[in-house]
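Why does residue order matter? Because the sequence determines the fold. Keep that principle in mind as you read this record.
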Amino acid sequence: MNAEPTSKTRRPLLALAAGWLATRAAMLWLLALGGVPLLGHGSVAREVWRLYHHWYGVLAHGSFPVHDPLWQYPPGAGAVLLSPALLPGLTYFQAFVALTLACDATITVALTIAGARGHRSLLGAAVWVAGLPLLLQTPLARYDVQVTALAVLSLLALPRSTRACGAFAALGALVKVWPALVLLGTPRGRMTRSAWAWALATGTVALGVLAALFANPFGFLREQGGRGVQIESLGGTVLSFAVHAGWPGRVRYQYGAMEFTGPYVRTVAHVSLALTAVAFALLLLWRLRARRWTPATPYDAALSAVLLFTVTSRVISPQYMIWLVGLAAVCLTSRHTVQRPVAALVLAATAVSAVEFPVLYGQVMACTWTGCALMLVRNGLLAAAAVLSFVRLWRSTSPAPPLPRAPRRSPDARGATQAVPA
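Structure:
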């Protein structure tokens, strides 16, 4: 009698496993073909075998990179860049890609386990399996998959262990800051106190260990503050169109990205920072006013927060879409989520991101009409997703409207009843 349900359960799991193997094999194949012009002339893989490997050599000597304008990452990033040493039989590039695939598989398994539980959904795992390859080979040559794994594990651990939730979030924040936002939607009371306390304790201990083992752990702050407006950001899209209106600015490689230089760039950067502050204020206001929590609220809040901070950032690199696909997948493991249309917008923006980089990145750098149109579509989708996500989050947690009061009734002179205004 149990054979048929078991078969129905195994079928989607086998489909997910087959899908993961097929898509990841295709991503590896694209990575091997990285020298093809449409795949970026090798620029995608170069980040690992040149830049990451260089930093690995510096870190191996007990110091974070100093006076390096490209080093803009918290101390935990050093641990990720040193991790290929765990596979001594491989080259640095091979080991890095292998560990990235291992983290990708971990996310897939975690989403599958979460979705297979009662009243949950495997849609989240399917979105991750199908969504990540939309970025072609790029995810395999960036460490954003590792960071996303920590954020995903943090959110999925919340219903069972607030300690694990806080610990994973803290470790993620030490690698790339944004995973700290996944704690925004923890239910009020004991769960919030426990998760945040464990995050603080874990972060303090881990930061202390890194500071003891490596010199200059906070050197990244100096370089991060000097960043300008990247061409793929929302502000960069405005400046790209301004070029066609006669603005004399130029695109230049600095701080590890292609950024605009020229008049008003600093003003655009300040506006971006102001919008980030507004986003933070809105999220804080939501937290104070929220009254209803569903099992999906922590997931929905995490996606909304990261979307808002991504859209208002001075930098929106293609690999940032990895974070959003991962968080959207977590939301879709719950049937209570209100972020389904937001996830669709995120997937659409992810697909456009792959066309923008690496396929037509030259058009974006040259600010051609094609490049401008691509960035307008991608960033327009992200902006729409951010607004829709926050609105749906706000409405889903607002107090339920009071039910209309039933009219009082009193007997009339003939023994019948009539309504009496309340």
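The two ends are 58 Å apart (CA to CA).
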